[in-house]
Fold this sequence. Notes:
Shape: rod-shaped
Helix content: 55-70%
Number of helices: 5
Amino acid sequence: MDDTILKKIEQEEKRRKRRMYWYSLIPIIITAILIAVSYSEVNSAQQKVDYAQMKVDTLETRVHTLGEELKQKNDSLEILEESFEFAVNYKDKRYEMGYAADKEMYSQYPRQTEMLTEVRHLIEEDAVKWKLGGSSLQEGFDSPSFATYLINRFSSTQIPKDKTYRLYDYLTKTEQPRVGDLVIYEKGYSMIYFRSGGNRFVVGMTPVGLASLQLDFGPRMIGYYRVEY
Length: 229
């Protein structure tokens, strides 16, 4: 066999090997392409999932915010309803305090009289407003928080902050009220008890502001609770 034929055979063999080599690469290339496409699709899907999660988080935050706003509006509506009810039903139940009562009580109940004088001053100056959950003269008070403020300021009994709305659990109930004791009514009213010249009355915060009221001004009384001075 001459050299020319051998060279042709060798060249053909080399071409065959090259074809086989490239043919063997085709599945690898296709696999690589599929992996790249799949990765791109997975990445795109993950981005969509992340975006959807972000939207869900945003919506959950918005729902929570709207829930809080709705609660605040409901609380405001409840306060307005209570204010209207108080103004209509209790307008004739106010008790007019006179300074003569202060003189009469002071010798026997000095701290309670100071409390009464302070409340009268706040009423006359319209210095404090109704505020659900409030806890200061600047912010305002609701009925239990104002009663707690008076007790903590003028008496030796001190109400912990976490007991403001559970005064009936913290104070001792009594059947014989003394001047300065707490009177708790239904609908959340907590008022301070006074007696002057045979007249019994209470002072405290109401939805229309501070007021001095007859003892039986409206809501059913739950009971008297002892405060030490």
